[in-house]
């Protein structure tokens, strides 16, 4: 193979050197391969922007979602060179929030590392706002923003007009982990901290790299490329305290009414959790983001529980005496603002994060990798007699009856004929009916389901009947309106094919309609279903439940979403109709399209109870606060 001495251009700092290095890396199939072959020198003088691109390549990041501006021109030029050589891929967007959501979906659902790139000022702030979805759902990816220059020569356009240093770095540090590359030579430290955040084994999240405008083109002399950190691969940890494990086993055998509450952290461990639940005779309740952790038809799976919840999920939570919390942050809507377990006397918490591990009182804290800890419990339970087999069977029988009641209720609501709607002035489908039709279709074609915030999301996680994690992505961590629409674009950037269907309301869709353009631009194939009730139905229903009337949650402006979507070349826009048959036909047509389809479905919004799936828990919101807080004060855990 050619050595670097035979390719002198790779030693050059300027554009000619960048092009030469990019071509060598492309030719050898990667940076590490080029270094191993001697085609690139181990030590080289290059700009910070190029060094960052090479450093991220070592961590497997070659896909960039970008909106370039004056704060990122140098980085943009390096990415242009490396993309033309086939080393990186850059996907341009029109809105930073949209772009942040698409990056989150690519890293979350397709598990592909990526980086979001914006300029300074409003763009960076919008991307940071969008990154809340990644932060709340534990999704790791890089966010790279431009920043003010380091010489303090005067205000930079779009910097925060305040005489204080590193204000953008301070703001991003509040959202997650942040690093301002004030000194280019600090790149190695920045990338080490970056991979520790993005690839964190317990709580990954967005890592914010701030690139001052003037440090991007600065040269780092004699940078050792082999010293740039690789992607973090943390080892699994287990419980070393055998006494703690013994106490957990004793609790599992002492209590007959056991509920497992599985959060998003439990999604990767569906198989082991199922075995443990069956061994212990426990009912299993999911959070909105962990549906599928047990197959929907499994007799011990009680569906979702929490402030919205379900009849069966909330029954199990309300009547259990032992809570086994697994990979959960105990978010307010998931544990009814701390009052979801009124009879629980003891908690076993399995989590690797110390703060989440010790959230509840009376906790036997089993800190470690969930799979490893569950295996330890299974081993420790071998040979331990079950002295409460009969009451445990009675507990599961009561839970089974509750689940049957929930399924009967669902069937009733999902069979409701079209209801007359005051806004539409004609009968239209209810959301439970329409969402059920789309869910069934998604499962039939093996599509990923993405749910947006609001009423669609709530009715959605009550409806889904998943048999494994990964069938549904409910962005319930931040409930960021517009996420699902933008997530579809990730299908066009991903290396593997997986058909997505976005479930979105009219309000959520209008947060990021430019995602239609991005989805077509990047070749995404999928469907966006707009459930249009002409209002913020989730808030309307909450206002009605709390105060008897709604206020300022709708408008009188009608939008023809079929015409709007059809105006984007490449989008197939379809009318979903006002009955089940029409909706099914529209979904079939959408799925046969080679690109993006949009299906518009008018749905009922009103006070008739059959228009929704109800609520079954408590929430520390509005005029419910006093009651919830009083119960919280008297709770044991």
Structure overview:
This protein is α/β, with parallel strands linked by helices. It is 39% helix and 17% strand. It has 25 helices and 22 strands. Strand 6, helix 9 (187-198) and strand 7 form a beta-alpha-beta unit. Helix 5 runs parallel beside helix 6 (122-130), helix 10 crosses helix 14 and helix 12 (311-319) runs antiparallel to helix 15. The radius of gyration is 26 Å and the shape is globular. The relative contact order is 0.10.
Q: Estimate nothing, just give the exact number of structural domains.
A: 3
Q: What is the name of the CATH superfamily of the largest domain?
A: Thiamin diphosphate (ThDP)-binding fold, Pyr/PP domains
Strand order of the largest sheet: 3-2-4-5-7-6
| Largest sheet geometry | 6 strands, parallel
The CATH architecture assignment of the largest domain turns out to be 3-Layer(aba) Sandwich
Helix content: 25-40%
């Amino acid at each position: 193979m050619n050595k670097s001495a035979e390719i002198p251009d790779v030693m050059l700092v300027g554009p000619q050197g960048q092009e030469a290095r990019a071509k060598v890396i492309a030719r050898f199939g990667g940076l590490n391969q080029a270094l191993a072959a001697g085609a690139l020198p181990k030590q080289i003088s290059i700009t910070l922007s190029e060094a960052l691109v090479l450093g991220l390549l070592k961590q497997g990041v070659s896909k960039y979602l970008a909106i370039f501006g004056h704060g990122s021109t140098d980085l943009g030029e390096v990415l242009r060179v490396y993309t033309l050589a086939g080393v990186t891929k850059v996907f341009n967007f029109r809105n930073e929030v949209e772009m942040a959501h698409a990056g989150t979906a690519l890293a979350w659902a397709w598990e592909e590392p990526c980086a979001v790139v914006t300029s300074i000022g409003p763009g960076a702030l919008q991307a940071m706002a969008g990154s809340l979805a990644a932060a709340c759902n534990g999704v790791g990816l890089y966010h790279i923003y431009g920043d003010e220059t380091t010489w303090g020569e005067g205000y930079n356009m779009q910097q925060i007009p305040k005489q204080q240093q590193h204000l953008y770095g301070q703001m991003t540090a509040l959202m997650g982990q942040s690093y301002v590359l004030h000194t280019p030579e600090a790149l190695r430290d920045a990338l080490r901290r970056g991979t520790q955040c993005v690839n964190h084994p317990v709580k990954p999240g967005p890592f914010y790299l701030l690139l001052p405008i003037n440090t991007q083109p600065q040269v780092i002399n004699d940078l050792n490329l082999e010293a740039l950190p690789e992607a973090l691969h943390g080892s699994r940890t287990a419980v070393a305290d055998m006494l703690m494990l013994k106490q957990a086993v004793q609790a599992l055998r002492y209590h007959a009414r056991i509920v497992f509450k599985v959060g998003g952290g439990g999604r990767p461990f569906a198989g082991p959790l199922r075995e443990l639940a069956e061994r212990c005779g426990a009912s299993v309740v999911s959070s909105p983001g962990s549906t599928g952790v047990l197959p929907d038809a499994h007799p011990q799976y009680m569906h979702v529980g929490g402030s919205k919840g379900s009849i069966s999920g909330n029954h199990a939570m309300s009547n259990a005496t032992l809570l086994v919390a697994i990979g959960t942050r105990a978010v307010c809507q998931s544990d009814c603002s701390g009052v979801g377990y009124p009879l629980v006397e003891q908690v076993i918490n399995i989590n690797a994060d110390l703060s989440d591990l010790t959230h509840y009182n009376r906790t036997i804290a089993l800190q470690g990798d969930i799979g490893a800890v569950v295996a330890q419990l299974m081993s420790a339970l071998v040979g331990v007699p079950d002295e409460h087999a009969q009451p445990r069977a009675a507990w599961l029988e009561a839970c089974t009856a509750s689940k049957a009641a929930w399924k009967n209720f669902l069937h009733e609501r999902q069979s409701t004929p079209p209801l007359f709607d005051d806004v539409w002035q004609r009968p239209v489908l209810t959301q439970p009916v329409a969402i059920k039709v789309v869910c069934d279709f998604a499962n039939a074609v093996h599509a990923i389901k993405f749910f947006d915030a609001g009423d669609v999301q709530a009715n959605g996680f009550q409806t889904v009947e998943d048999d494994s994690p990964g069938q549904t992505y409910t962005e319930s961590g931040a409930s960021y309106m517009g996420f699902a629409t933008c997530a579809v674009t990730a299908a066009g950037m991903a290396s593997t094919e997986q058909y997505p269907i976005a479930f979105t309301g009219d309000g959520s869709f209008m947060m990021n309609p430019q995602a239609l353009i991005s989805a077509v631009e990047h070749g995404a194939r999928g469907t966006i279903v707009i459930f249009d009730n002409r209002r913020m139905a989730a808030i309307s229903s909450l206002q009605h439940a709390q105060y008897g009337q709604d206020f300022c949650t709708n408008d009188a402006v009608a939008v023809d979403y079929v015409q709007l979507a059809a105006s984007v070349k490449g989008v197939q826009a379809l009318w979903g109709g006002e009955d089940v048959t029409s909706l099914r036909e529209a979904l079939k047509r959408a799925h046969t399209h080679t690109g993006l389809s949009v299906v518009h479905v008018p749905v009922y919004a009103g006070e008739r109870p059959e228009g929704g799936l109800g609520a079954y828990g408590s929430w520390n919101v509005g005029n419910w606060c006093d009651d919830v807080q009083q119960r919280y004060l008297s709770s044991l855990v």
